[in-house]
Design goal:
heterodimer; A: mainly alpha; 9 helices; B: mainly alpha; Rna Polymerase Sigma Factor, Chain: A; Arc Repressor Mutant, subunit A; 2 domains; 0% strand
Amino acid sequence: MRTDDMLELLVQDLPNQPRPVSAILLRWWPAAATLAGGGFLAITGVRPDLIAAGLTPTLVKLMLGALIALSAISGALDLSRPEAQASAASKWLLAVVGFLGLIVATDLLRHGLDGWWARLFGKGIITCLTLVPALAALPLVASLTILRRGATTEPMAAGALAGLASAGLAILAYGLFCNEDSPLFVATWYSLAALIVGLAGAALGRAVLRW
Amino acid sequence: MRLALDGDQVAYKMLLAALVPHVRGRVRHVLARAGRGQADVEDIVQETLLAVHLKRATWDRSMPLTPWLNAVTRHKTIDLLRRVGARGEVDLDDAVETLAAPEEGGERQLDVHRMLSALDGRQRHIVEQVSLAGRSAAEVGGQLGMSEGAVRVALHRALKKLARTFKGRTDANR
């Protein structure tokens, strides 16, 4: 086939207009997360002492989840353009780092260094590191499937951002269930759980986001 | 490009035709910088055009077109270098091919025929009628007793399959 002949093929295919990745992603990715998170909460219920424990710790968890989800998904969407670069697309994650720093600083200012060990290692570590990735699995698969329509030249970074973003949405559901309220606990183990999903996303992205 | 994305086929054809020399120049440039022969230029140009077409929704209309186009071209060129490079002993092959094969020569044609054989009979017929005979989707539909829409769906699937075949071909056929 000569190059000119190929142009004819492409012109005849023009009426098959692809939709922008963002439109599809913003519709189905939250739906997948709602299915996973909603299903989980329907079975386990929210923590019984949600109000009694004071709403601030839960709000901190929800803000952390929302911040991770928004900053990472906007980066992943940015990276679906071939000319976008990983460093620029990841810059919003600095907001997450700043928020984590704020959480830790608040904890240390309020309680000092006494007993920081006990505040860091709660009983829910394994639960957190298991359930957050489990809840993130469905939205991660959904987001990667949709990002395949994109044209990233940074498949690992795009996959990692999709993983982090999905963990962010998982944290929104898990945060309503988790009864570990120490800011040190949340800042450390929630972040680690998100990083685990981010790594999984990077490995998967490398395999499936190539084109 | 904006007109073309809104479905203006005449504008799209003019645009693609205008992009070809630019893409060819970029491919040559990237290959030369990698110290590689130019034997695969026309293959990469076609693969890039296919990608430009299938991925056109990833161009942000508020941005200039050239950086997007160059990124797609570069990606496709480097992708081929990586696949070919993993095989080893390529430089000699390429050097010989460059000397032996004129552009769009017999060797290249054979390659593409092998690629078309990845399509099933009907897809292949549609691709050949549209590309080689220059018929429209509606005309081919009349010929095959299919609706214009069904022809378009088949054509679109064929293009996606061609894009995948382009990717797999280097490993399979060399």
